[in-house]
Automatic annotation (TrEMBL):
GO terms for biological process: L-proline biosynthetic process. Pathway: Amino-acid biosynthesis; L-proline biosynthesis; L-glutamate 5-semialdehyde from L-ornithine: step 1/1. The keyword Cytoplasm applies. This is Ornithine aminotransferase. Belongs to the class-III pyridoxal-phosphate-dependent aminotransferase family. OAT subfamily. Its EC number is 2.6.1.13. Catalyzes the interconversion of ornithine to glutamate semialdehyde. It comes from Stappia indica. Keywords: Amino-acid biosynthesis, Aminotransferase, Cytoplasm, Proline biosynthesis, Pyridoxal phosphate, Transferase. It is an enzyme of class 2 (transferase). It holds the Pfam family Aminotran_3. One of its GO terms (cellular component) is cytoplasm.
Length: 403
C-alpha cells in the first residue's frame, strides 16, 4: 500500500503528542547536505538537526563503525566495562584537553549532570553551606527541555504549566558582564552559558565577554560551564567555540554532533576536581557510555578532524554570511553568525519567519524559524562552495520577493 505524504502527517497528528510544529515535509533519505522526501523531491538541509548532523547525513565511515559495532556488542550497562569506552575517553581527552569525562546520552542529560556535579563540588570543595548553592544562567537561554532545565528558562512557552521548579538559579542578561559580576555571591558555584545563544536566534555576545567572564569565575572560584552542545565540534569554525576568545571552560558540554546524528551521545568534559566529587551510585545512566555509542562517537570525531570539516565550516561560513549580507531586501533586519551557525533576522512588519521557511521549502531549502522573526541557517559542515552559492540564489529569491 502506497502512503501519501498527507497520510504520514495525519497519522502523526492523530497519534503523536503535539509538542512540535514541523514543516510539512516527510523525509525518507539523506546524503551529505541533501535530503529527499517520500515523493522524491530533493532539499538542502540548512538545519542539520540543530547541529547534530555536522558530518553530513549518513556519513559512510560513521555508518561503517556503527554497523560493525552493532554486530559485536551494543550494550552492557556500566555495571561492566567495555572495550570502546576507554578509547572514546582517550580521543576526547586528546582533542579537547579534558582530564575527566562523564558520558551520557542526550544534551539535556549532560546539562543536568553538570548541574549535579557543580553543586556537589560547591558543597564538598568550595565550602558552600548545604542547600545554598547557586548557579548563574542567562536570559533567553536554551539548555534542554527537562523539568530541571525549564525551571531556569526565561521562555514562558517552556515554563508555563510545568512548575513548581527547583530553586538555586539566578538569571542575568546574556552578554552583560557587569550583571554577571553583580550576581556572583559566596554561594555561587557555577556560571552556565552558551557561547552563542542558538535557540534565541544566534545571539553573539560582545567581543571580550567570555575573556572577562573567565577572569571573574577564576577570581571568585566559580566553575565556568560552557554549553557547547550546538556550538561545539566544528559548528563555529573551531572545534569548540571557546577558542574564539582563547579561553578554557572548567566544564564543557558536548552532544549532538558527537555522534554525527547516528545515535544519542553526549558528554561532560571537565577535570578531577569537579567530576571527582561523583562517587559510585551517585549518578549514572544505563545507556551512557555504551559500546555502540562510543564506537559511533569515535568515528564521528575522527571524520570531523581528518576530513577538514572544521576548517571548511570557517571558509564556507564566511562565504555564506557575506552572500546573505549582499542580498538587498527590505525584509531583512540583520544577518549574523559565526562559522556555519547563521541567522537572518526579519523586520517584524515583514511577517513571521515561518512563512519564509515555507517558501524556502518550495525552493528546495529546509531551514527553521526561531523566535518568530529569525531564520536559523546551519547546514552540515561538509557543504561546498558551489552548494553555498546554490543556497544563496534561493535565499535571494525568497527574501526579495516574499511578503
Amino acid at each position: 500500500m502506497t502512503r501519501l505524504p498527507e497520510d504520514y502527517i495525519a497519522a502523526e497528528h492523530e497519534l503523536g503528542a503535539h509538542n512540535y510544529k514541523p514543516i510539512d515535509v516527510v523525509l525518507t533519505r539523506g546524503e551529505g547536505v541533501w535530503l529527499w522526501d517520500v515523493d522524491g523531491n530533493r532539499y538542502m538541509d540548512c538545519l542539520a538537526a540543530y547541529s547534530a548532523v555536522n558530518q553530513g547525513h549518513c556519513h559512510p565511515k560513521i555508518l561503517a563503525a556503527m554497523t560493525e559495532q552493532a554486530a559485536k556488542l551494543t550494550l552492557t550497562s556500566r555495571a561492566f566495562r567495555n572495550d570502546q569506552l576507554a578509547l572514546l575517553y582517550e580521543d576526547l581527552a586528546r582533542l579537547t584537553g579534558a582530564h575527566k569525562i562523564l558520558p551520557m546520552n542526550s544534551g539535556a542529560e549532560a546539562v543536568e549532570s553538570a548541574v549535579k556535579a557543580v553543586r556537589k563540588w560547591g558543597y564538598e570543595v568550595k565550602g558552600v553551606p548545604a542547600g545554598k548553592a547557586e548557579i548563574i544562567v542567562c536570559a533567553n537561554n536554551f539548555h534542554g527541555r527537562t523539568l530541571g532545565i525549564v525551571g531556569f528558562s526565561t521562555d514562558p512557552v517552556a515554563r508555563t504549566g510545568f512548575g513548581p521548579f527547583a530553586p538555586g538559579f539566578r538569571v542575568v542578561p546574556f552578554g552583560d558582564i557587569d550583571a554577571l559580576e553583580q550576581a556572583i555571591t559566596p554561594n555561587t558555584v557555577a556560571f552556565l552559558v552558551e557561547p552563542i545563544q542558538g535557540e534565541a536566534g544566534i545571539l553573539i555576545p560582545p567581543a571580550g565577554y567570555f575573556t572577562r567572564a573567565r577572569e571573574l569565575c577564576t577570581q571568585h572560584n566559580v566553575t565556568l560551564i560552557l554549553d557547547e552542545i550546538q556550538t561545539g565540534l566544528g559548528r563555529t569554525g573551531k572545534l569548540l567555540a571557546e577558542e574564539h576568545e582563547g579561553i578554557e571552560a572548567d566544564v564543557t558540554l558536548v552532544g549532538k554532533a558527537l555522534s554525527g546524528g547516528f545515535y544519542p551521545v553526549s558528554a561532560v568534559l571537565s577535570n578531577s576536581e569537579v567530576l571527582g566529587v561523583l562517587q559510585p551510585g551517585e549518578h549514572g545512566s544505563t545507556f551512557g557510555g555504551n559500546p555502540l555509542a562510543c564506537a559511533v562517537a569515535r568515528a564521528a570525531l575522527q571524520v570531523l578532524v581528518e576530513e577538514g570539516m572544521i576548517e571548511n565550516a570557517e571558509r564556507q561560513g564566511q562565504r555564506f554570511i557575506e552572500g546573505l549580507r549582499s542580498i538587498r531586501s527590505n525584509a531583512v533586519r540583520d544577518v549574523r553568525g559565526r562559522g556555519l551557525m547563521l541567522a537572518v533576522e526579519l523586520h517584524p512588519e515583514a511577517g513571521g519567519a515561518r512563512a519564509y521557511c515555507e517558501v524556502l521549502r518550495e525552493q528546495g531549502i529546509l531551514a527553521k524559524d526561531t523566535h518568530d522573526h529569525t531564520i536559523r541557517i546551519a547546514p552540515p559542515l561538509v557543504i561546498t562552495a558551489d552548494e553555498v552559492d546554490w543556497a544563496l540564489e534561493r535565499f535571494d529569491t525568497v527574501l526579495t520577493t516574499s511578503k
